[in-house]
Automatic annotation (TrEMBL):
This is Pimeloyl-[acyl-carrier protein] methyl ester esterase. It comes from Buchnera aphidicola (Aphis craccivora). The gene is bioH. It holds the Pfam family Abhydrolase_1. GO terms for cellular component: cytoplasm; membrane. It is found in: Cytoplasm.
């Protein structure tokens, strides 16, 4: 049976474990890895069922956390984008002594819209799932293009990223997509997020429709020890549309805090 594997880039003294969003491989971090590997040692993760771990079956969130606990170095910063933010937060809650810091990027402790909570309508999450299953290429292509629409400077980067992301191994199967869907629909950490005591940075996009910027103020009240930053004129992938600003935020924050 194939073993769990990952990429390690950089030689810095601080370890950062990078976790993806739903349905894409770790190659989406291609340009960020190039920039941050000068300063940090980056451990870039593909979840089971995609990318370098395509041959593995996607498992539940608890099993993923145990894999991270087993393989990843102690005292790492955990950086989670979107769905990856939920997993990183779970790790921080279960293993607080093994984590040096936590970064959310376009993530939320609960993704589903409710009466007093901004988020995604359940029907829209199912709609995204069906689109990913039935037409993966077109769905991801449209998603990335839409998220960077206002940034013409991203065109060249986006062309390179799409070529990488659409390689055969980077396409998840239906079971992998379904497991990710289940996590998005079921995991709710709003009542627990206040227990996070390590430095906690949250980065949002002002135009993000999946994690609306209103989430920022709500999480501020739930977790007053954390810090939030909203990047203007960006959506759900600020590390692509505003990569320079994104990297500057991380460097300034964590070299101050840690």
């Amino acid at each position: 049976m194939k073993k769990f594997t990952w990429q390690t880039k950089g030689t810095g003294d601080i370890n950062i474990v990078i976790l993806n969003g739903w349905g894409v491989s770790c190659e989406i971090w291609f340009f960020i890895v190039q920039k941050l590997s000068i300063y940090f040692k980056l451990h870039v993760i593909d979840f089971p069922g995609i990318g370098k771990n395509k041959a593995l079956n996607f498992i539940d969130i608890q099993q993923i956390i145990e894999i991270l606990n087993f393989y990843m170095p102690r005292n790492s910063i955990y950086l989670g984008w979107s769905l990856g933010g939920l997993i990183a937060t779970n790790f921080a809650l279960l293993y607080p002594k093994k984590i040096l810091g936590l970064i959310h990027v376009a993530s939320s402790p609960y993704f589903i819209k409710q009466k007093n909570w901004p988020g995604i309508e359940k029907k829209n999450v199912h709609y995204m799932y069906n689109n990913l299953v039935n037409n993966y290429y077109e769905t991801i292509n449209s998603f990335l293009s839409l998220q960077t629409l206002t940034q013409k400077k991203c065109f060249k980067d986006l062309k390179i990223l799409k070529k990488i992301l659409f390689q055969k191994n980077n396409i998840p199967n239906q079971k992998t997509l379904k497991k990710g869907l289940d996590i998005l629909l079921s995991v709710d950490l709003r009542s627990k997020i206040s227990m996070i005591k390590v430095p906690f940075l949250r980065i949002y996009g002002s135009l993000d429709s999946l994690v609306p910027k209103k989430v920022s103020n709500l999480v501020d009240s739930l977790c007053p020890n954390s810090n939030s930053i909203i990047i203007e004129k960006t959506g759900h992938v600020p590390f692509i549309s505003h990569k320079e600003e994104f990297c500057s935020i991380l460097l300034e924050y964590f070299f101050k805090k840690i």
